[in-house]
């Protein structure tokens, strides 16, 4: 994140110099000699400082744990468990090399796999890590448990030091700084994870000036995943990041949207379809896809654009379904 800086006013120049012109004459000083020696020493010091700084700032090349292609499954050990709410945990998995990074890129996901104890068919599901792609030593998954969801139930029942198999990364949408002037993220539930991955990358890069609008639907307030991280982005970049939350079962004091994500809400907060160089990303449960954009056919086939976005006049090329 970009740290906020506090600037203090410098003292007036008249207070920064001693009034030598008013002092009585003194005997000849050795100051010029000391000054010459001091400047020479300063020059050496500056050279060393610059050299050391350049060395310290040089980016460290780290190995990638996941390289895609023909790489097989990689087993990672669960090292930490954090309970986020009544049905969601943050699971931290150690990378085999503490100096290595995951190898994830924006935007991409990983496959997870486990084999049931009864020896049945392996269960495989995709997940998007929420930790920074440059973070060495570990990666985090935010996992919501679903009734009769074999992978989410398995991960919620895992204990520290148990292992899970991973494979990837799986490319989703190749992001480049300033690829679009304005992007809109429409998410539901755990569909926020690829959205957060994308938003984090944008605001992490000082060269990327993309504007981001998030519309995030959930059942209750405690279901809003990554709320702390999203609030931090909104507070740090208020001119470029706007978040709109919609709850199906809001508390009495709730001031955000109520019910489902509606056509009226999207028409109000999204940029006009006629605006140039915009992109709308959609990710969530099947019901959200059906209402907002229509489902995708396969990882390589986005399918036709339907639903609210079609009704509002957006075209297929302006929408990407995670």
UniProtKB/TrEMBL annotation:
Annotated FAD binding sites: 125-127, 142, 144, 151-152, 193
Species lineage: Eukaryota, Fungi, Dikarya, Ascomycota, Pezizomycotina
Main location: mitochondrion
Entry's EC annotation: 1.6.2.2
GO cellular component: mitochondrial outer membrane
UniProt xrefs under InterPro entries: CBR-like, Cbr1-like_FAD-bd_dom, FAD-bd_FR_type, Flavoprot_Pyr_Nucl_cyt_Rdtase, FNR_nucleotide-bd, OxRdtase_FAD/NAD-bd, Riboflavin_synthase-like_b-brl
SUPFAM superfamilies per record: Ferredoxin reductase-like, C-terminal NADP-linked domain, Riboflavin synthase domain-like
Pfam family, one: FAD_binding_6
Annotated membrane topology: Single-pass membrane protein
A GO BP annotation: ergosterol biosynthetic process
Lineage: superkingdom: Eukaryota
Cofactor: FAD
CDD domains named in the record: cyt_b5_reduct_like (cd06183)
Name of the protein this chain belongs to: NADH-cytochrome b5 reductase
PROSITE patterns on file: FAD_FR (PS51384)
UniProt entry keywords in alphabetical sequence: FAD, Flavoprotein, Membrane, Mitochondrion, Mitochondrion outer membrane, NAD, Oxidoreductase, Transmembrane, Transmembrane helix
Annotated function: May mediate the reduction of outer membrane cytochrome b5.
Catalysis: reaction(s): 2 Fe(III)-[cytochrome b5] + NADH = 2 Fe(II)-[cytochrome b5] + NAD(+) + H(+)
Residue ranges annotated for the FAD-binding FR-type domain, each copy included: 71-176
Family, similarity comment: Belongs to the flavoprotein pyridine nucleotide cytochrome reductase family.
Location in the cell: Mitochondrion outer membrane
GO molecular function annotations of the record: cytochrome-b5 reductase activity, acting on NADH
């Amino acid at each position: 994140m970009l740290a906020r800086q506090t600037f203090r006013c410098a003292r007036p120049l008249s207070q920064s110099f001693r009034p030598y012109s008013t002092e009585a004459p003194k005997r000849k000083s050795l100051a010029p000699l000391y000054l010459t020696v001091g400047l020479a020493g300063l020059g050496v010091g500056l050279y060393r400082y610059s050299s050391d700084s350049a060395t310290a700032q040089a980016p460290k090349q780290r190995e990638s744990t996941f390289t895609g292609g023909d790489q097989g499954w990689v087993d990672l050990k669960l090292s930490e468990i954090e309970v986020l709410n009544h049905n969601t945990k943050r699971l931290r998995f150690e990378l085999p090399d503490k100096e290595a990074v995951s190898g994830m890129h924006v935007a991409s996901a990983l496959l997870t796999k486990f084999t049931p104890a009864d020896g049945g068919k392996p269960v495989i599901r995709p997940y998007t890590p929420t930790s920074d792609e440059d973070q060495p030593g570990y990666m985090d998954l935010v996992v919501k448990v679903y009734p009769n969801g074999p992978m989410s139930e398995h991960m919620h029942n895992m204990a520290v030091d148990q292992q899970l198999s991973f494979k990837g990364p799986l490319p989703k949408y190749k992001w480049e700084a300033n690829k679009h002037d304005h992007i809109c993220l429409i998410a539901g539930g755990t569909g926020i994870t690829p959205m957060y991955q994308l938003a984090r990358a944008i605001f992490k890069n000082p060269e990327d000036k993309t504007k981001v609008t998030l519309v995030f639907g959930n059942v209750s307030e405690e279901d809003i995943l990554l709320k702390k991280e999203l609030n931090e982005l909104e507070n740090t970049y208020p001119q470029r990041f706007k978040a709109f939350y919609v709850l199906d079962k809001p508390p009495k004091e709730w001031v955000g949207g109520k019910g489902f994500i509606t056509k009226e809400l999207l028409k109000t907060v999204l940029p006009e379809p006629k605006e140039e160089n915009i992109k709308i990303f959609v990710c969530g449960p099947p019901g959200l896809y059906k209402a907002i954009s229509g489902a995708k056919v396969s990882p390589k086939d986005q399918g036709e654009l339907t639903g609210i976005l079609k009704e509002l006049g957006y075209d297929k090329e302006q929408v990407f379904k995670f």
